[in-house]
Amino acid sequence: MSRRLRIDVFFEFICPWCLIGKRQLEHAQVQFRSRHPDVQITTVWHGVQLLPQLPVQGEPFADFYRKRLGNADAVTMRQSQVQQAARAVGLTIDLSRIETMPNTADAHRLFERASELGNAAQREMLLERLFAAYFLRRENLGCRETLLAIARSCGVDTDGVLDCLKGDATPFEGSPDATSGVPSFQFDRRVTVIGAQPAQALLAAMNEALKESDRERQPA
């Protein structure tokens, strides 16, 4: 009988720790597969809109973080922490160059709909492209035209997603299992890891979930 491991990831596009956590998960999966080549891994991504109160046009990025953290020095310190963690997983993120803190409701609706319509390769491509749009290309994820262009570049049939791009800041509902702590990783819905933890921590959680599953499968 084949063995399976399901991973549910709860994320927000504008959270740098979610992109960093994605890279950590990828590293953990490589190690896990080398040790358990017989286990089929299924990863399901669930969007979480952390800031539904943002206006549809978003807010200036610098102003948002100054208000959130209190002063420019605190913003600089936080950005330095993020950049250091990003470099450790091979990412170059320059938060100081981002112009807009967007309302991400439509971006999440786009990804959710495209995930239903497309295949696994398209889902992964779109997920990466949406993260890159914000953190690497400084594109506005609250802009309908930008989202449609991204969808087309990933081979998504835009006719199938037009109606989910509301453009009116209607909050994204998402999964009922979502929490405000992102990134969050659930392994077989048995073991949960919250935050952009090191790959070894995620690997340990994967192994623990697999052991629990194996114990349950053993005859009494």
Keywords:
Glutaredoxin, alpha+beta, 7 helices, 4-stranded mixed beta sheet, two-stranded antiparallel ribbon, 3 domains, globular, 220 residues
Structure description:
The structure is a single chain. Strand 5 and strand 6 (about 190-195) form a beta hairpin. It is built from seven helices and six strands. It folds into three domains: about 1-50 and about 175-220, Glutaredoxin; about 50-60 and about 100-170, Glutaredoxin; about 60-100, no CATH class. About 45% of the residues lie in helices and about 15% in strands. By secondary structure, the protein is of the alpha+beta class. The protein is globular and about 60 Å long. The strands form two sheets. It has a four-stranded mixed sheet. The protein has a two-stranded antiparallel sheet with strand order 3-4. The model has no long low-confidence stretch (mean pLDDT about 95).
Q: What count of helical segments does DSSP give?
A: 7
What does the largest sheet look like?
4 strands, mixed
Secondary-structure class = alpha+beta
Q: Radius of gyration over alpha carbons?
A: 18 Å
Named CATH architecture of the largest domain: 3-Layer(aba) Sandwich
Please give the share of residues in helix. Answer: 40-55%
Percent strand equals: 5-15%
What CATH calls the topology of the largest domain is Glutaredoxin
For the termini, the CA-CA separation is 17 Å
Looking at CATH, the homologous superfamily of the largest domain is Glutaredoxin
Instruction: Give the overall silhouette.
Output: globular
GO molecular function: oxidoreductase activity
InterPro entries: DSBA-like_thioredoxin_dom, Thioredoxin-like_sf
Protein name: DsbA family oxidoreductase
Pfam families: DSBA
